Amino acid sequence: MKTALVCGAGGFIGSHLIKRLKTEGFWVRGVDLKFPEYGDTEADDFVIGDLREQGVCHRVIDRCFDEVYQLAADMGGAGYIFTGENDADIMHNSATFNLNIAERCHKRNIKHVFYSSSACMYPEYNQLDPDNPNCAEDSAYPAAPDSEYGWEKLFSERLFLAYNRNHGMLNRVARFHNIFGPQGTWDGGKEKAPAAICRKIAEVNSGDAIEIWGDGTQTRSFLYIDECLEGSTRLLRSSFEGPVNIGSDEMVSINQLVEYVAAIAGKTIEKNHIPGPLGVRGRNSDNRLIEKKLGWRPTESLRTGLEKTYGWIEQQVMANKK
User: Fold this and answer.
1) Chain-wide mean pLDDT for the chain?
2) Which position among 115, 149, 163, 260 bears the catalytic label?
C-alpha cells in the first residue's frame, strides 16, 4: 500500500486531499494544529502538532512516504494578508514550516514533495490592469510581489527546487490561484472572496445591499477544489518540477462574482462599495504551460463550483441562526 503525508491536513485543501488519496488506496497521515473544522478527517493517522517545531517534524516524518503534500501555511484572505498587521507571523511561520519539512524529507530520503505556492508571488507591476494581467510562469522575475505572503511563497519555491538540484529530490511546485469550495473557511476574517460573498448574500434578503471592498472592478479567477486536487496529484506524479499555475483562466470582476452568486441564490442584491484591502487590480491563471507539460487544464465552470459552494455556505448560515 502506498503512503502519503499531508501537512496542513486540518485545512480546507488538505482535508479534501486526504479524501481523494483514500479513494486512490493510500494509507494517509495528516498533521496540523487542528482537526478539520467541518467534518471528521478520513486520515488513517492524524497528528496534532506544530510543524514549526523540529521535534514534531521528526515524529511525523518517521518513514519514507511515497508522497508528501506540503500545504501548511499561515494564510487567509485579503483581510488577513494585505493589512500589514500579520506580516511577521506570515513570513516566520510559513518559512519555518517549509525549512523544517524540506530538510526532514531529505534526511528521510523522501523524493516526492508537493509544495503549494501561490499566485500572490507574481509581480504587482504585471497586475495593474484588471483586464490584462500577466501571470505566465516566466513573468515571476524581476520579483515584486504585492505582499509579504507572496515574498515568502517565492522564497519557499526556490527552497524546494534547490533541494532538487543539491539533494536529488523530485519536489514539485504549483502556484495556486484562489481555490474555493464547500467545507472551507467562510467567516471570521480569513475567508476568501467567493466564500465571503456567498456568506454575505446568504445572510440578507432580496433587495438588500452587501458591502464590497473597492469598486468591484478588480479581477480574479477562482478554481474549484476538485480541479485543484486533480492538478496537484498529476503534477507530483509527473516528470515536470514546475513552478506551474494551478488555477482557472475564467477571469471575472468581483462585481460579476457578486452577480453570479446572487443569481444562484435567486436574490436581487445591491452593492455598497467601501474602502478595504484589495491586493492587485487583476489576476488570472495562465494555463498554457500546464496544458503543454501535463496535457491537462481545468474545465469546470465557475458557475458550477459556486452553486455547490453557495449551497453549503447557506446551510452554515442557517444553522448559525438557530
Assistant:
1) 95
2) 149
